[in-house]
Amino acid sequence: QRFSCIGTCRRIVVLTPCCLFAVARCLGCSAPLQAPAVQTKSKKTLAKPGVKNVVVVDGVRTPFLLSGTTYADLMPHDLARTALQGLLNRTNIPREVVDYIVYGTVIQEVKTSNVAREAALGAGFSDKTPAHTVTMACISSNQAMTTAVGLIASGQCEVVVAGGVEFMSDVPIRHSRKMRKTMLSLNKAKSLGQRLSVISRIRPDYFAPELPAVAEFSTSETMGHSADRLAAAFSVSRVDQDDYALRSHTLAKKAQDAGFLSDVVAYKVPGKSTVDKDNGIRPSSKEQMAKLKPAFIKPYGTVTAANSSFLTDGASAVLIMSEDKALALGYKPKAYLRPTYATPKVLERAGLTLADIDVFEFHEAFAGQILANLTAMESDWFAQNYMGRKTKVGAPPLEKFNTWGGSLSLGHPFGATGCRLVMAAAHRMKQEGGQYGLVAACAAGGQGHAMIVEAYPQ
């Protein structure tokens, strides 16, 4: 078993390759979309003497859509290009000012393996602007942002665009390895006799395709199976999972209707209609959700399509700069970025506690994984036996937790979610008067990422 989750540290038990925190408290009431009172007392800043401040100026994303819907005929770089163009339009940043572009993605289209480069060229950036693509499962865009921070902090760059894209409507399906080897041999054959000899070795089973699966190579276990086992290990019931998923969809719908999801930019899909909102937000009822059968461990599993994040197409982009450069260009940044790995570590390094955090934005892979991890965070026994801590970390209060919905309802394009989390935290802090946000996400392979987002002074 692997032990890691952004919510605690790398050693939290992770039976799901895409895990997070869990909610170990009553889920019957929905958190308000807006804090009852704007915080007036300013807290200390995390700025340090001699350390360059890095800020996020703004960020956008395409609408996140269920795979196989309006984006179905596109390619990944189309979505990434659209996000980049949306960022340029929103910020009016001159293309030549951008020093570097880095994008995250998970399922790579072989024709555009460096999707950052293809998207950048398509968006009109100079071929002299470097661009590279990073993959780190569900925290790929988190890593893209961390890379941007590193480039700026080290003095290599002043202005970096980071983002992510995922396109699940069209994923690579390969021939079997036997067929691939045969086809490569056929390509090398020089004479007709050699070609016929190679062809004669082909057998019917060679034509069986290799279908993709959201599974870890090292364990062959899918995320859903891992989530089911994690929920069982922490005694998270099907009812609790459905309740949490319903909360996510209900809050997301309220946020969407209220216009809070302002990072979404409209996209006129070629040959189709303009999309301007996420289409996976679907508040249901407990009764309807209870009718669904287990999706992975049958017939006794508790993870279903209703309490899992869905396959999603989408892209995101954020403009990151040194604070000095942003001010020199006349921008008013949204927030400071203070990245590191693992929630207890990021809090300890920043000298903060959970009580100091005003806004929590965590990736919701599965409701069961959320609930199980927060249960672990509330356990002294777990902290002592698995985390090397004397006392529990503590679970975030629900009234501060994902109050505009999360990945269960808004969608989860693997490579793009991290940027959405950061912008949600920045916008929530501005609206609610908070100073600190904690962004966290998990990734396949037992990895995780956490980041403190500090509101920029108004």
Automatic annotation (TrEMBL):
Keywords: Acetylation, Acyltransferase, Endoplasmic reticulum, Fatty acid metabolism, Lipid metabolism, Membrane, Mitochondrion, Mitochondrion inner membrane, Mitochondrion outer membrane, Signal, Transferase, Transit peptide. One of its GO terms (molecular function) is acetyl-CoA C-acyltransferase activity. Its main location: endoplasmic reticulum. InterPro entries: Thiolase, Thiolase-like, Thiolase_acyl_enz_int_AS, Thiolase_AS, Thiolase_C, Thiolase_CS, Thiolase_N. Heterotetramer of 2 alpha/HADHA and 2 beta/HADHB subunits; forms the mitochondrial trifunctional enzyme. Also purified as higher order heterooligomers including a 4 alpha/HADHA and 4 beta/HADHB heterooligomer which physiological significance remains unclear. The mitochondrial trifunctional enzyme interacts with MTLN. Interacts with RSAD2/viperin. Mitochondrial trifunctional enzyme catalyzes the last three of the four reactions of the mitochondrial beta-oxidation pathway. The mitochondrial beta-oxidation pathway is the major energy-producing process in tissues and is performed through four consecutive reactions breaking down fatty acids into acetyl-CoA. Among the enzymes involved in this pathway, the trifunctional enzyme exhibits specificity for long-chain fatty acids. This is Trifunctional enzyme subunit beta, mitochondrial. It comes from Leptobrachium leishanense. The lineage of its organism: Eukaryota, Metazoa, Chordata, Craniata, Vertebrata. The gene is HADHB.
